[in-house]
Every structure is written in C-alpha cells, then in structure tokens.
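Bit of a strange request maybe. I'm writing a small parser for structure token strings and I need a real example to test against, not something I typed by hand. Could someone generate the tokens for this chain?
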Amino acid sequence: MSIAQSIETLAAKVKDLKPIIETEEATKTAFIIPFISTVLGYDATDPREVIPEYTADIGVKKGEKVDFAIKAGEDFRFLIECKKIGEPLSIDHAKQLIRYFNATDTEFAILTNGEVYEFYAQLDAVNRMDERPFMTIDLSNIDPRVLPYLEMCTKSKFDSDTITTNAEQLKYIAEIKKLLSGFLKEPSPEWVKFIASKITSKRMTAQNLEAFTTLVATASSQLLKDEANRRLRSAQDYDDSPTAMPEQPSQASTADTSISSVQEETGADNGIVTTDEEIEGYSIIRAICCSEVPATDVVIRDAKSYCAILYQDNNRKPIARLYFDRKTPRIGIFDADKKEHMHDLNVVADIYGFADELRARVKSFL
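Reply from user aminoacidic:
Good idea to test on real output. This should exercise your parser:
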C-alpha cells in the first residue's frame, strides 16, 4: 500500500471514529498505533522497534514517560508524545518530550492527537528540540505536497541526513508563507513603506501611509485572485509549429502532439473545465517531481480529452496526461522514449504508486 493510500485509509478511520473516542488511551489504540504501523511502517508489537511508555530518569525528574519511542537497533528514530483526539497541540504541554529529546540521541520527535501529527527536529540548535514543527500532517485536511516528505520518515526510506535537509527547507518555506500571508492580508507599516518607496517619492506621512496601506491590501487581494484564476484557467493553445499534428491522446506515439494550454479566463466557450480532481492530480505529480526538479518547472495545461502535465510549460516535454473524463480514471506517463504508458486509478491518490516512473521521466529532461 502506498503512503497516500495508508494516510487516506487512516484519515477515513479518524473521521468515522473521532466522535466516540473519549480518552488518550483510546486515541493511541485507534489512531496513533495504526499510524506508527501502517504509515511509518514499524512493528508496533515488537518492543525492539516500538517502546510504549518509554522511561528514562533525567536529572531530578524521575519516572517520567514519553508515550512511544521508536528505535532501529540502538538508535532512536522518533519520540512520540500523544494527546487525546481533539485536543489542541502545544509544545508547552509536552515538556517531557522536550526533556527526553534533549537527553537522548534522537533527532526527531512527533507530537500528535491522533488527527494532527507535528514533526520536530533539531535545526536551530544541536541536541535541542525546535520550538516549531518542520512538518504537519492533518488527517482532516491532507496536503498531498507533504506526503513525499512523510515517506522519507518511514522505516524503509528513513535517512536522517535526507530528512534533516528537507526538514530545514520545509520549515523555512512554512515560515516564509506565514510571513507573506500576514503581509498580504494585513500589511504592516514597514511593508507598506517598503513597497511605497519602490513606486513613489512621496513622504510617508500618517495620511499617505493610511492611503497606501489600503492600496497595498487591495492590490494583494487582487493579486491572489488573479493567481488563482491563472492556475485554474483552461483553453486550447495549439503549438505554432508547422509540424504540429492533430490531437490524438489515445495513442502513445503522439507525445509530440501539441497540448492545449491554459487561458486567462475560466468558463470560455471551448467547453474545457479543469476539475478539482485534475488539480489534485497535478498537485500530487508536482509534489513527486519536486524532488528532482523545481516545482515551478511542472506545469498544468488542460485540453478537452485530457489534462496534460508538462516540463517547463513545453508541450514537447510531456510528463503525464490525466484522463479523468471516463468511468475508470487513468494516467498516462511518458518514458524517456516519449512512449505513453497507461495506468488505471481507483482514486486520484493512486498516482503516488507511480512516483518512480514520474521521477524517471523528469530526470530524463536533465
């Protein structure tokens, strides 16, 4: 079972059982132990791998326990602190997890209530657990872009150096997004002054600052809407090359056939609609391929018969095609020889099962 399938199965279980779970112990049994076993891939019944109620006397603190310690041989991989389902997660309420993390040779920790899983590392200082998680998995709102990083934390794929490198990137990206979101939604005076200095020589009096604050907020709102429309636009844009051939998506030999590009506005008369499933499929493919190429190099273009995923927005460099307008959804993945290989999908997340083929395809462009 792929990491996406495991997560979706557990998410469905959480949604179904959450209303009847009333204790922390029930949360562990119903959700957290299955997460350890089916998602991370550790044998929860083997005390050499998963140690429940792990105890280690630390300084003056005697008899404190952390809910689970996950080990590989003599090495700690994760310490896990559990809360009851529905309880908010706060690092202030997990002091023993911090103390254990700082006293053992573990590099990673998880704080969870069975529905939300926060992953911590030691990026800010050696042998000290960070105050903020580098990755959060929310089973009520799964972000498919995070799943490739979660897969790196599984038993079969675990490599501390790789996780640390990606953890640093994830943490900084999350903080930058949070900062930019704040700037866009409620621009600070410093942010307004910086922008104003680039477009006007007016002195930022209190009156001008107030006026520009409104302008920046309005421009930010419009920018976000424009970007959303740009990503969802759908239209035909045939290749201008005189050698372009008519669209024949059902045949593997048509890899060089021009692929429709997107249009500035949605709802055009061409009848093309980019569905939520196609957007989800595109997000999954981009998340998979971003381990090999920049995410911005993976681009979506929609057509009437299929939805194309291209490398660097070049219709002569197709990565895959999504055929979701049929009873059995399919994905066509191109190989290095530009032959399209078709695969049936039960759910969109099944695309994760073809991660190796997708990565091989983008590698061929390098």
